[in-house]
């Protein structure tokens, strides 16, 4: 079997060692006569898996006991509603920063549950920039400030953490675990798993414990973080196999050298790809240089009529899922943790060859 290089924005590539371990465990987990997928989530075996996954994640990110770590379902999009339902009291308002399509979705959903103040937006630049902090019109009495550190569609990223007096809330679906992070600066972090954590179907929530127990009266039980925390993420049956796979990913990161080592690899991958784009008149990246993402690299061809042959030839060479999001077009290479450096090298070699033949 020959594996291709997968540049999908999500569900994204998983580390080969993780897949190999999961393959070997699939039919029978640790001599128990069944797969972990078939075991009760109340069993000692699965509880041990979940506890180890949480402990390793806490070690990787330096998460203190002041925070609850929750393994939930519903994707980051469900947390668009859960955030205001848990943090936005009646009559209060919340601040949001709009830097792309996922920010817009979070804002639209939050407005269903309370007053939302968009403190800054880069929509006038077609989401190719990050609004400077001194231009934000924040409310000193806001219940929280929400932002999206990395926008997968537009390929823009915050390379700094906003200072705010209100609890800081972040949708880190496409950037978490890609580098070290000071969790103590956040009130709440959430992330869909299908980028850097594991398979689709699992959602990670890291929430400061003093923010639990303040949900709106009509908050559904399944969206109440306090309920999830009090039940160790097992108020209902959790996505057991996804938790197991996430734990394997956390182990892989730890064995690699942790997040500092992963950050160095990611910076190197992104620098190579941006250098190839910037050194060409055939390819272009629309994002201002200081706001470029390390995880999602959009680029266009000088002649859009060549988009289709570019994708066809790339796929023939085992370079998959390079088509840009339907809302922006062009190409996009998502180079998450599990995308190896040789995949980026192979993509660059193909791009240069294609340019020589078509440019």
Automatic annotation (TrEMBL):
<dbReference type="GO" id="GO:0004648">
    <property type="term" value="F:O-phospho-L-serine:2-oxoglutarate aminotransferase activity"/>
</dbReference>
<dbReference type="GO" id="GO:0008615">
    <property type="term" value="P:pyridoxine biosynthetic process"/>
</dbReference>
<feature type="binding site">
    <location>
        <position position="194"/>
    </location>
    <ligand>
        <name>pyridoxal 5'-phosphate</name>
    </ligand>
</feature>
<keyword id="KW-0028">Amino-acid biosynthesis</keyword>
<feature type="binding site">
    <location>
        <position position="102"/>
    </location>
    <ligand>
        <name>pyridoxal 5'-phosphate</name>
    </ligand>
</feature>
<feature type="domain" description="Aminotransferase class V">
    <location>
        <begin position="5"/>
        <end position="347"/>
    </location>
</feature>
<dbReference type="InterPro" id="IPR020578">
    <property type="entry name" value="Aminotrans_V_PyrdxlP_BS"/>
</dbReference>
<keyword id="KW-0963">Cytoplasm</keyword>
<comment type="pathway">
    <text>Amino-acid biosynthesis; L-serine biosynthesis; L-serine from 3-phospho-D-glycerate: step 2/3.</text>
</comment>
<dbReference type="Pfam" id="PF00266">
    <property type="entry name" value="Aminotran_5"/>
</dbReference>
<feature type="binding site">
    <location>
        <position position="42"/>
    </location>
    <ligand>
        <name>L-glutamate</name>
    </ligand>
</feature>
<comment type="function">
    <text>Catalyzes the reversible conversion of 3-phosphohydroxypyruvate to phosphoserine and of 3-hydroxy-2-oxo-4-phosphonooxybutanoate to phosphohydroxythreonine.</text>
</comment>
<dbReference type="GO" id="GO:0006564">
    <property type="term" value="P:L-serine biosynthetic process"/>
</dbReference>
<dbReference type="InterPro" id="IPR000192">
    <property type="entry name" value="Aminotrans_V_dom"/>
</dbReference>
<feature type="binding site">
    <location>
        <position position="152"/>
    </location>
    <ligand>
        <name>pyridoxal 5'-phosphate</name>
    </ligand>
</feature>
<comment type="subunit">
    <text>Homodimer.</text>
</comment>
<keyword id="KW-0664">Pyridoxine biosynthesis</keyword>
<feature type="binding site">
    <location>
        <begin position="76"/>
        <end position="77"/>
    </location>
    <ligand>
        <name>pyridoxal 5'-phosphate</name>
    </ligand>
</feature>
<feature type="modified residue" description="N6-(pyridoxal phosphate)lysine">
    <location>
        <position position="195"/>
    </location>
</feature>
<comment type="similarity">
    <text>Belongs to the class-V pyridoxal-phosphate-dependent aminotransferase family. SerC subfamily.</text>
</comment>
<keyword id="KW-0663">Pyridoxal phosphate</keyword>
<protein>
    <recommendedName>
        <fullName>Phosphoserine aminotransferase</fullName>
        <ecNumber>2.6.1.52</ecNumber>
    </recommendedName>
</protein>
<dbReference type="InterPro" id="IPR015422">
    <property type="entry name" value="PyrdxlP-dep_Trfase_small"/>
</dbReference>
<keyword id="KW-0718">Serine biosynthesis</keyword>
<comment type="pathway">
    <text>Cofactor biosynthesis; pyridoxine 5'-phosphate biosynthesis; pyridoxine 5'-phosphate from D-erythrose 4-phosphate: step 3/5.</text>
</comment>
<dbReference type="InterPro" id="IPR015421">
    <property type="entry name" value="PyrdxlP-dep_Trfase_major"/>
</dbReference>
<keyword id="KW-0032">Aminotransferase</keyword>
<dbReference type="GO" id="GO:0005737">
    <property type="term" value="C:cytoplasm"/>
</dbReference>
<dbReference type="InterPro" id="IPR022278">
    <property type="entry name" value="Pser_aminoTfrase"/>
</dbReference>
<dbReference type="InterPro" id="IPR015424">
    <property type="entry name" value="PyrdxlP-dep_Trfase"/>
</dbReference>
<feature type="binding site">
    <location>
        <position position="171"/>
    </location>
    <ligand>
        <name>pyridoxal 5'-phosphate</name>
    </ligand>
</feature>
<feature type="binding site">
    <location>
        <begin position="236"/>
        <end position="237"/>
    </location>
    <ligand>
        <name>pyridoxal 5'-phosphate</name>
    </ligand>
</feature>
<keyword id="KW-0808">Transferase</keyword>
<dbReference type="GO" id="GO:0030170">
    <property type="term" value="F:pyridoxal phosphate binding"/>
</dbReference>
């Amino acid at each position: 079997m020959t594996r291709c290089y997968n540049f999908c924005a999500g569900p994204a590539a998983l580390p080969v060692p993780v897949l190999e371990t999961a393959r070997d465990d699939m039919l029978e987990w640790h001599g128990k006569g069944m797969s972990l997928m078939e075991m009760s989530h109340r069993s000692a075996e699965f509880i041990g898996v979940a506890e180890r996954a949480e402990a390793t994640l806490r070690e990787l990110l330096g998460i203190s006991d002041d925070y609850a770590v929750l393994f939930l379902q519903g994707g980051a999009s469900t947390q668009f509603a859960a955030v205001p339902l848990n943090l936005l009291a009646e009559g209060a308002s919340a601040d949001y920063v709009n830097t792309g399509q996922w920010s817009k979705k979070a804002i639209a959903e939050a407005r269903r549950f309370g007053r939302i103040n968009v403190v800054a937006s880069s929509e006038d630049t077609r989401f190719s920039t990050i609004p400077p902090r001194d231009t934000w019109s924040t409310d000193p009495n806001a219940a929280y400030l929400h932002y999206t550190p990395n926008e997968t569609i537009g390929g823009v990223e915050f390379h700094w953490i906003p200072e705010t007096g209100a609890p800081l809330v972040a949708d880190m679906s496409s950037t978490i675990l890609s580098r070290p992070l000071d969790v103590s600066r956040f009130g709440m972090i959430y992330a869909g798993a299908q980028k850097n954590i594991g398979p689709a179907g699992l959602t990670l929530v890291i929430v400061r414990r003093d923010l639990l127990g303040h949900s709106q009266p009509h908050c559904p039980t399944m969206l109440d973080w306090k309920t999830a925390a009090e039940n160790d993420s097992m108020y209902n049956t959790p996505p057991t196999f996804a938790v197991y796979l996430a734990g394997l990913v956390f182990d892989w990161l730890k064995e690699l050298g942790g997040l500092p080592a992963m950050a160095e690899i990611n910076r190197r991958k992104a620098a190579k790809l941006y250098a190839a784009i910037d050194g060409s008149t055939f390819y272009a990246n629309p994002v201002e240089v200081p706001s470029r993402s390390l995880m999602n690299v959009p680029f266009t061809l000088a002649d859009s009529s060549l988009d289709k042959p570019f994708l066809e030839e790339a796929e023939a060479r085992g370079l998959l899922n390079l088509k840009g999001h339907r809302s922006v077009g062009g190409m996009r290479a998502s180079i998450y943790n599990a995308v190896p450096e040789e995949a980026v090298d192979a993509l660059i070699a193909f791009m240069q060859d294609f340019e020589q033949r078509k440019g």
